[in-house]
């Protein structure tokens, strides 16, 4: 069991969307601890780390590092910072890909989708499992990755490389979960969420598909990761 006093949480992809909502949930629910935030947008990370709530709580500390997960030198910088920080929980939220017919999108954009959504978190997980982020002996630790109920187990037309990356992520995590049943490695797979990932003209917004407030998903993720020990794959699809 991870105790509140030892909470050191790293959020990768924290500046907006589910990552930022999860951080807000964390700040609200944890009287003490330490969080390390990563993403590309420095201004947004800065704002998140300077809220009034944090200013009045000296027992919850926040730091951040900007990094582009699609770039190798930045990836190395993330690993280095994580080794220094020694998080007992890691949450990986970043993901995405080009929207449109597969052949009309550039190869560079498809590569980006695979790198940010699958390859980088897979490499981070590999290092983590080999004890290269945290020493193998030590307190309990957890690694949670955002999947997608929409794209990880069925076709997602016009988002082929994103869907390919999410299928790969699910295959990787579920295989490792069977290889290493004692690891607290989890996959959180939400349905459509009300974030910038879904632009104003996205099909689900236009065709009446339910789109869930992101705060609701963050709450559910927090409850599941921190307090529940059942299945390590959570499909978040409230109706
Ligand atoms: N929204 C949905 O409908 C939905 C549905 C199912 C699954 N999901 C999954 O849930 C997760 C969160 O989605 P979301 O809707 O919150 O997405 P979002 O609003 O697009 O936010 C993505 C976060 O990842 C960061 N990020 C993106 N690319 C990055 C890069 N190259 N390097 C570093 N950070 C990067 C972004 O920050 P910066 O821009 O500052 O870098 C941002 O903080 C994703 O894995 C997504 O696939 C979302």
What does this molecule look like?
There is one protein chain. The chain is of the alpha/beta class. The protein has a single domain, classed as NAD(P)-binding Rossmann-like Domain (Rossmann fold). The protein has 8 helices and 7 strands; from the N terminus they run βαβααβαβαβαβααβ. The protein has helices at 17-29, 42-49, 52-55, 72-85, 107-129, 160-179, 203-206, 214-227; strands at residues 8-12, 33-39, 60-66, 89-92, 142-146, 184-190, 233-236. It has a 7-stranded parallel β-sheet with strand order 3-2-1-4-5-6-7, with helices on both faces. β1, α1 and β2 (33-39) form a beta-alpha-beta unit. It starts with 7 loop residues before the first strand and ends with a strand. The model has no long low-confidence stretch (mean pLDDT 95). NADP nicotinamide-adenine-dinucleotide phosphate binds at residues 13-19, 39-41, 44, 67-70, 93-96, 116, 146, 148, 150, 190, 192-193, 195-198. NADP nicotinamide-adenine-dinucleotide phosphate is lined by residues 13-19, 39-41, 44, 67-70, 93-96, 116, 146, 148, 150, 190, 192-193, 195-198.
Q: Work out the strand percent.
A: 15-25%
Instruction: Give the % helix.
Output: 40-55%
CATH topology: Rossmann fold
Annotation field: number of helices: 8
So, the CATH homologous superfamily? NAD(P)-binding Rossmann-like Domain
Q: C-alpha Rg, in Å?
A: 17 Å
Strand order across the largest sheet: 3-2-1-4-5-6-7
**Bound small molecules, deduplicated:** NADP nicotinamide-adenine-dinucleotide phosphate
The domain tally reads 1
CATH class identity:
Alpha Beta
| Known CATH architecture | 3-Layer(aba) Sandwich
Structural class: alpha/beta
The low-pLDDT segments are: none
Order of helices and strands: EHEHHEHEHEHEHHE
Give the distance, in angstroms, between the N- and C-terminal Cα atoms: 31 Å
């Amino acid at each position: 069991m991870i105790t509140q006093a030892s909470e050191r949480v790293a959020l990768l992809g924290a500046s907006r969307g589910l990552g930022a909502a999860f951080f807000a949930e964390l700040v609200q629910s944890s009287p003490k601890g330490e969080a390390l935030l990563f993403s590309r947008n420095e201004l947004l990370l800065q704002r998140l780390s300077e809220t009034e709530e944090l200013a009045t709580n000296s027992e919850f500390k926040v730091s951040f590092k900007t990094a582009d997960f699609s770039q190798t030198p930045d990836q190395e910088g993330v690993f280095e910072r994580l080794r220094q920080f020694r998080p007992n929980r890691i949450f990986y939220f970043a993901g995405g890909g080009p929207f449109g017919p597969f052949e009309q999108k550039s190869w560079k954009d498809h590569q980006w989708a695979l790198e940010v959504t699958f390859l980088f978190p897979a490499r981070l997980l590999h290092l983590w499992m080999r004890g290269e982020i945290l020493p193998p002996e030590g307190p309990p630790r957890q690694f949670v990755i955002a999947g997608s109920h929409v794209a990880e187990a069925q076709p997602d037309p016009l988002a082929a490389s994103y869907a390919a990356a999410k299928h790969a992520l699910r295959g990787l995590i579920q295989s490792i979960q069977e290889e290493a049943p004692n690891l607290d490695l989890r996959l959180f797979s939400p349905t459509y969420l009300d974030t910038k990932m879904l632009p104003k003209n996205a099909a689900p917004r236009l065709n009446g598909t339910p789109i869930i407030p992101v705060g609701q998903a963050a709450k559910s993720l927090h409850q599941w990761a921190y307090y529940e020990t059942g299945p390590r794959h959570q499909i978040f699809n409230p109706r």
